[in-house]
Amino acid sequence: MLNIIRESFDLTNKYIILATPLILFSLISSLYLAFSLHGNIVSMAIAVILFFLMLGAFLSGWFYMILKCIKYPDTEEPNQVIKEFTEGVGEYFLPVLGMLIKTFFVAVILFIISYIAGMKLIGDTGISSTEISAALTSVESLKTFLLSLSNEQLIKINAWNILLFLTMSFTYFLIMFYSPAMFFKEKNPIKSFWIAIKDLFSRHFFKNLLLFIFIFIVYSIISILMTIFGENVFAHFILTLLNFYFFVFAVVLVYNYYYANFVKIGSNIDTRI
Fold first, then answer.
1. CA angle 85, 246, 66 (to 5 degrees)
2. Nearest in space to 5 (alpha carbons), one of 217, 192, 187
3. Of 240, 239, 172, whose CA–CA distance to 22 is shortest?
């Protein structure tokens, strides 16, 4: 594990050009959503569909770049990997769209199951959506709202928060190998999902879990630091760059880990499904 982490750091530093498409997409998509999510339901629906297509194009090209970095780590011109972006879009655009749709439905199913379990085990908090919306209008209104809650309601809210956190974490863990399985083994989004699940719960399960925990803990630390130093412009800028860097590193790490443990066997490539 430590060797793979070290290799992934070296790959991230060597192929730091990987951060460029990520930063550009984050900037462009943020501006697009800020100016597009207005108007009637039809216009908002069109904006969401276009964003979905933009996301599919970005991920197909970006993941393909990472694939090339993992397969050919010794190239002498690492910045040339940016040229692989368009080829990745052409080859993986439709499979990635299928992957996004599949991921959405899996997440919805898991959250429905979680909601049903929560209603039976925790129960309703007795708080309406109108009250929550009103409480979120300002910090003072939120403080007033929290002070008005009973101990029983606070306990239930904390329990719901824990349940939501566990559901989100399990969802992220479940799809951790989805895109590597698609790019390394099988383009079909349905087949690649089951390949990813099979590999996730294989004999390497505890190593897979350790990988997820490592990424989760480091990302949580960066998020907490960004919250603490959010008002400091310089610190926020440095932490934002660190956040982008770590995101690239995390994806490279997952792909490199998957390639080493589930794709490359000695000097051969495992193409079994």
1. 25
2. 217
3. 240
Instruction: Please choose, from the candidates 103, 9, 11, 95, the residue with its C-alpha nearest in 3D space to the C-alpha of residue 59.
Output: 95
Report the C-alpha gap between 95 and 97 in whole angstroms: 5
Average pLDDT across the chain, whole number? 89
Count of CB atoms situated within 10 Å of the CB of 266? 6
pTM: 0.89
Give the number of residues written for the chain. 273
Neighbours of 263 (CB within 10 A): 20
pLDDT confidence of 265, banded at 50, 70, 90?
low
User: Per-residue b/e over 58-84, b at no fewer than 16 CB within 10 Å?
Assistant: bbbbbbbbbbbbbeeeeeeebeebeeb
* C-beta separation of 211 from 143 below 8 A: no
Residue with structure tokens 């429905």?
A: 112
Tokens for 272, please give them: 């079994």
Pairwise CA distance, residues 215 & 44, whole Å: 34
